């Protein structure tokens, strides 16, 4: 298919662009296969706006006489408006944008066409391999092994080819366990707590069904993570009633009789369609500037967004607490084990593991616990808060995770190597990107699409020193401690960097941030200078002494 | 002290207010003439000033002892458990007596002695000079003059002696107008904007009833509008909700009839009265004090309390006022009922938006002295300094500070002072430790001879101003007299956690960017000094070694290779700037007691009850 077929009008002149807090600009609008490009013609102030079609969440057209207006709502929550003279042109452009922003074939997406303008220093596709992770693990324990039971995705389609499992369990047993877990997602290692040797595993629900089916191998596998005489905790992200109902559909939960060493805790985390609704409501509330205080607060409340944040943080703290404080191993799962499970396991690692608070470590966490672990990015991030599609696959699961990280970041602003912009960047790229990283729903799909060969990895770009510097937190000082955030409502805040980003001018806040960075930078310069001077003086003094003591 | 029956109780438990696991510290409770002091087993001290106590409550006896809950005006809430009921009863009764003072002379300020001599005391009181401030604003001038009408408090008891009025307002006009205004509070100058030649004036409501008029008062307003050469009309802002103002007419009070006053534009701005504000704060505190609060209960509680709505109303009014002056060059007359609560809020905030001087540490002190203290905001009644009518208590001044805090959040570089400064002022408005806020008006303060018998807060704050400086402050942020235009869309207003949970450390960020930046900025100054010093030394050395070197070269042609020797001084050298762990990791106004590592160990000590896993329900308390 040629994109040209979809572009009915490639160019329109005298288009007026409206953006909040900017003066309206007149210019030319061009449509290409992947971008909407607006450039103003004024000589004194040439401005260009490049918008990926895949970033467009919804478009709306209105007419006043022959002047057409297109309102474009983006997945990064920005809203722009284009006034296009001529009804036909406007209609053509609108329908072209609509077609181009809803391409159903992945291989037509921009990452397959994007040619990077930078030199690749390190191929991001091979930056984070599980082998490396395992190497680190083997240096502290020999209780685990790297299994390639899922080679060619033959056992579990949503798992990567390599997984880390207890050494005492062989591949044959893993295959049997896979049959006992939904989607074949058998328990695998998510995190090993070096401090006390406790492990966090993740899986999907066991398929116990109504007659209480059991699987000896499954029991053996999870028990293999326990120290003798110690107990473990199963954190089920569904309420008990939901877990019980799941039995009727063949699912279920670990029953005490068969897992006597495990204590089950049900910690409810909302499912995806409810989260999507919550996201839509929150964005609606934030976008209406006319709300009086009461209405704003009640809309904020009705969105339930911060409730989800609190629930999620609480569940993650709980998992972390079981591991670090109770000295127990943990198994986390919900139903499929691809959404709330990953939120909990990845956040618990942020709390427990200082490495995850570095840029590289956080990237590795996203790769390991989200991409390789089979979070269906393509389904979840197909639409953002302005969608009206009733597909019900979409959900801001990853955004919620990022926001929880932001909330912890706010409480421990010196403990993270990256800054808020890094989290916002990941939010943007999960929804629309020139990079192939977030395409596909799991590693198997990515392999089929040949993404590593055909597209550029986000990490290849972001890990270049010149890009990286934008995402570094100047306040960072490595902190090897477990960081326990407060989950009191008074301690949680709306993530203004995402939700109010386009709704107010943040010039003064940005300038203040710059000033903060300057103070820190200046401090480092001064310290270096003082040290250099001290050394110089010391040398002079020795010099003097040598000469004075000389012959 | 006659009220103190027991001075020391041992084995008292201090419960964590928000812990669901009854986490507690054990220690000894001491009762002194001025403070209640708790020292826990690790020698940490909690001081509570008797004047800060808003309420003491004895809860029913439990197995572990008798619970005593103390609520403070600075929003600290402490929950003690005293082992023996009799001790608890004694302390309870003593605190009831000690926290309710009947006479000003018994307040802490009259016994507090910061070891200053008399001249220091006098100088301290002279630090803020309002005459100087009016001069800074540009009055007296061709249009405005100092009036001696109230020199002996004869016209208005609650105004200061020195008042600025339009030159054309003669004494009879002043007297006539004052008779037509509640409590005699006639229109006077509060702030003069010298670039726009426009003025903020303040007064109380007119005694207009349904139809009464007063020619002198009309002349007075006319004089004010004529004192502004750049704009003929003036605004009259009634800061009350329209309904309240109308209700007042039945009592012979009310608001200005636009038909009777020429060239006025009348405007209601709808700030609620002191009773609404009191109950609003009450509701807010109830919500924020709930244990195990859910997000939705918090948000709906915040909404139902109306607190942020009120803060927004106050700030909206101030923005209206400031814009009238800065944009339209129109003078504005502000009043409410008596003109000492809402009027003080709006006038002072308006001036703060207009004039960057009030965004400096000294300027903010001046602003408070002028619009709040001198114009008779009833600090004594509103803050309940003496045992009085509980219906007079209201957080009007707290709202003012909160509005300023909201502005500092929006304009992080516009203010010389920081949040700690606002919190400290709030602390001392209630502490009765300094004389500034005692009493209800200047006349009362003079009668109490506060300047001889007590000390002023301001020099004390200035002496430790390092703590209150905003490291991000940029004096060039807004050139003098350019308007600060805050965004007052609802989502900009936030719950002021550091005020209402100032003492609930567990809710605060564990690391404070603010403290870090502040300390780094402080360190930078020190480093700059160090560099100067080192450079000087090196220069000196160089000069000396040049001389030596020359001599040396004369003596020997082969000097020892210096680089290969390890310089003894270099070894002795101090480690490059100590990385100040304390600075990086702690947060809080009480820097000393809040090291991050301690906080962590505290958490680990609290184990294992933090999560009640037994019931399959997890509750996080950290």
UniProtKB/TrEMBL annotation, chain A:
One GO MF term attached to the UniProt entry: enzyme regulator activity
Record keywords: Acetylation, Cell membrane, Cell projection, Coiled coil, Cytoplasm, Endoplasmic reticulum, Membrane
Myotubularin phosphatase domain location: 124-499
Subcellular location per the Swiss-Prot or TrEMBL entry: Cell projection, Ruffle membrane; Cytoplasm, Perinuclear region; Endoplasmic reticulum
Bilayer-crossing regions: none
Gene3D superfamilies xref list: Pleckstrin-homology domain (PH domain)/Phosphotyrosine-binding domain (PTB) (2.30.29.30)
Major localization class: membrane
Membrane topology: Peripheral membrane protein
A GO cellular component entry from the record: endoplasmic reticulum
InterPro entries: Myotubularin, Myotubularin-like_Pase_dom, PH-GRAM_MTMR6-9, PH-like_dom_sf, Prot-tyrosine_phosphatase-like
Residue stretches in coiled coil: 509-543
Gene Ontology biological process terms from the UniProt entry: negative regulation of autophagy; phosphatidylinositol dephosphorylation; protein stabilization; regulation of phosphatidylinositol dephosphorylation
Pfam families linked: Myotub-related (PF06602), PH-GRAM_MTMR6-like (PF21098)
Family to which this protein belongs: Belongs to the protein-tyrosine phosphatase family. Non-receptor class myotubularin subfamily.
Name of the featured protein: Myotubularin-related protein 9
Lineage, top ranks: Eukaryota, Metazoa, Chordata, Craniata, Vertebrata
Automatic annotation (TrEMBL), chain B:
Keyword Lipid metabolism: yes
InterPro entries: MTMR6_PH-GRAM (IPR035998), Myotubularin (IPR030564), Myotubularin-like_Pase_dom (IPR010569), PH-GRAM_MTMR6-9 (IPR048994), PH-like_dom_sf (IPR011993), Prot-tyrosine_phosphatase-like (IPR029021), Tyr_Pase_AS (IPR016130), Tyr_Pase_cat (IPR003595)
Coiled-coil ranges from the UniProt annotation: 517-544
Gene3D superfamilies: Pleckstrin-homology domain (PH domain)/Phosphotyrosine-binding domain (PTB)
Keywords, comma-separated and alphabetical: Coiled coil, Hydrolase, Lipid metabolism
Matching Pfam families: Myotub-related, PH-GRAM_MTMR6-like
GO molecular function, one term: phosphatidylinositol-3-phosphate phosphatase activity
SMART domains reported in the protein's UniProt record: PTPc_motif (SM00404)
One GO term (biological process): phosphatidylinositol dephosphorylation
Binding site for substrate: 273-274, 336-342
GO cellular component labels: cytoplasm; nuclear envelope
Record domain Myotubularin phosphatase: where: 124-500
PROSITE patterns: PPASE_MYOTUBULARIN, TYR_PHOSPHATASE_1
Keyword Coiled coil set for record: yes
Catalytic site: 336
Family: Belongs to the protein-tyrosine phosphatase family. Non-receptor class myotubularin subfamily.
Name listed for the protein in its UniProt record: Myotubularin related protein 6
Originating species: Taeniopygia guttata
